Amino acid sequence: MSVDMKGIIEENSLLKNELLKTLDEKEKLVFLCEELLIEKQDIERKYRSLRNSKLGRLTIWYWERRRKFKNGPK
């Protein structure tokens, strides 16, 4: 009976360690997602402020045109 208990305890320990690793990876992914969201919001804010000036609108038009022809006219 003690052999079965020992096996169960070992399996439980392995599963616990696996769960802890998975939780750590999940926390890292959540942190990376939060950082990406902050970066995305910053880029969107800069884009909106760029749109407000004449030079900014011209620059954005140039970027969009360049991207359109870089991928090939459709």
Describe this structure in words.
With 74 residues, the chain is mainly alpha-helical. Helix content is 91%, strand content 0%. The protein is built from two helices and no strands. The chain has helices at residues 2-51, 54-70. The longest helix has 50 residues, at 2-51.
Average pLDDT level: 89
- Overall structural class, as computed from helix and strand content, comes to mainly alpha
Structure summary, number of beta strands? 0
Multimer state: single chain
**Low-pLDDT runs:** none
Radius of gyration from CA coordinates: 26 Å
Q: Report the end-to-end length measured between terminal Cα atoms.
A: 74 Å
Give a quick account of the main beta sheet: strands, pairing sense, barrel closure. none
Query: What does the overall shape look like?
Result: rod-shaped
- Quote the beta fraction: under 5%
Percent of residues in helices = over 70%
Order of helices and strands: HH
Give the helix tally: 2
Any key phrases for this structure?
2 helices, 91% helix, single chain, mainly alpha, 74 residues
